[in-house]
Structure formats: structure tokens, C-alpha cells
UniProtKB/TrEMBL annotation:
One of its GO terms (molecular function) is metal ion binding. It comes from the Bacteria. Its cofactor is Zn(2+). PANTHER family: 3-KETO-5-AMINOHEXANOATE CLEAVAGE ENZYME, 3-KETO-5-AMINOHEXANOATE CLEAVAGE ENZYME-RELATED. The keyword Protein transport does not apply. The keyword Zinc applies. Keywords: Metal-binding, Transferase, Zinc. This is 3-keto-5-aminohexanoate cleavage protein. InterPro entries: Aldolase_TIM, BKACE.
Amino acid sequence: MNFLDGSLFPENQQKLVITAAPFGPEWQPSDFPEDIPVTLEQQIQKAVDCYNAGATVLHVHGREDDGTGSKRLERTNELVAGIRARCPDMILQVGGSISFAPTKEGDTAKWLSDDTRHGLAMIEPTPDQVTIAINSNQMNVVEQMCAADVQGTSLAVGTPGYFAYREMTIPAGPEWVEEHIRRLSARGIQTHFQLANIAQLETVERMMRRGVCNVPLILTWVAIGGGFEAPNIYNLANFVRACPDGSVLTLESSMLNTLPLNMMAIAMGLHVRCGIEDNLWTQDRSRKMSTVEQIEQLVRISREFGRDVANGKEAREIYKIGTFYETADETLAKNGFAPNRKPGQKGFTQFGR
């Protein structure tokens, strides 16, 4: 991404798109009973509350009525249908893992099978987005957390939950990824790329150059450590520089890193994600902070920066919901990449030459 003179002026930036992740699939309901929705109606109402607070994208993971993370596509169908009826303009982004929560004590947290995750393309009503990981990767979500982050929770250091999540990996090989994108696109569902590092972004670019990924580059940089990059300014600057100008980038981190990274995103004209899936605490750890409180905080900060917050319809335009491309050349041009080299062509390539 290029930052020309005036790029930090709010009048030259897109309105802010806030993604809320309020369902916290890694937590037990007892970890934050005041804010973790359990029943279907509670989960739907949580989505409504997030939308009313200013979030226009909802990252969706379902729970069963007993509080366990749901691994049933039927539950996801029910949840998407209920939220769609109450918040028709909200962008519904279904988590590509469906649920990574262990089913019983002693299990390792793990993503569901390839075939099960392909079933996300058949959800009815269709969500707007499904998140996708690129390249199989470690996802040790507790590596970057300190003891104070998880004290008194089911992920406290040394507990079975802690060890279960420490060993989590993401299966996302090239054959499965390409087929998943094809199935989502055929159903009119946008692929939202959740990327751990620049190497994964380069894989996405190569797929676009081969014509097997003809979609807008709507992505999140997930800086959570444990196989993903750490949320420091050097990693962030390198990743942002690697993103083409036609992409739409959201920043995500965990625990007390979440707010500082979101403040950087607001200042830079990027987009933000918050919620108890990412962070439970106020910055001084004096108390737990609900997802709605986190959204309201970002709305206040963005307004202090002078940057308006997008409404649902505006967020859909920014995220290019419903847009797909026909060819590799169109995909590269729309996303802001250089064109493929033609046979015999020498030197650097650019569109218009």
C-alpha cells in the first residue's frame, strides 16, 4: 500500500469498518458469563447489540445450548438465519474453523475436517463471507499470552485448556484451499483471507496469477504469535507495504495488543477487529471488557481521529461484497497487483503498457 501526502488525513480515508468477534469460541461460558452468549437467542441478540454499537462485520462462531462450541453446520444455519433477519445490513463472516474447541478434556483444539469445512459453502441463508487460512500452519493462540491474560480462566497456564490450545494447528493445503475458494465463489460467498505472514499473502497472489482465485483481496493480518507474526511495528509495516493498493486490510491481535494495533489501523486508514475472541480485558486489567464496550471504545477513538465509522451499507461497498472477477488479468488489476509477464516481455510489468 502506498501512503502519499495526505493519506493520513481523515477526509482521504475510507470510513472505518469495525469487525466484532463476540462469541469467543476458545473460552468457556464460565470465563465471562456476563458477556458470552450461550443460547441461540442470546447469540442473535449479541449480534444485534454489536451492530447497534457500530460494528458492521460479525465474525460468527456458534455455541450449543449447553455452552459448548458447536461443530454442527445446522447450528450455523440457524444462527446466520436469525442474525440476518434482525440485522440485514450487517456483513456476516463465518469463521472457517466452524469450531476449534476441544470436545472433551484431554483433547487438542483442532479445526474440523476438510470435507466438513467445505460444507460452509452450503450454508443457507448464505453468509456474506467465510474466512480462510492459507498454508497449513501452527496456531498456538496462548504463546503470546502472559499469565495475567488468562489468570482465572479455562486457559490459565498449566490447565488442560492451555495445553489443548498450545498444540493447535491449521490444515490449509493448496488443493483444499483452491477448491474451497471455488465452492464459496460459486455460491456468491466472499472469501476473507486470514493471514499469518507475508509468505501466505504471496501464496494468495500466486493463486490470483494462475487464475484460480478471482476474488477481491479482502484480508486480515492476524498478529497473535504462535506461528503467526507478532504485533510489532516492523512486522506491520512490512505486511502493509506488501499489500496492493486495491486490497482492504483489517488488523487483528490478541489481549492487550488489540487496542494499540487497532489505534494504528484507525490512524493509517485501515480497519479494525475487536471482541472477546481477541481480548477480555481493559488495558489496565482492572476488569473484563465486553465486546460492545470494545466497539464503543473504537467508535469514540475513531471520531477523535476525525474518521467516520461506516454503516452497514457503506461497509458492504468498502468490502466489495458480491464482487467477483472473471480472469486473472482482471483480478490482478482490480486488486492493484502488477500484471503477469507476457511471453518475451522484459523488465518490470505494469498495466497500461
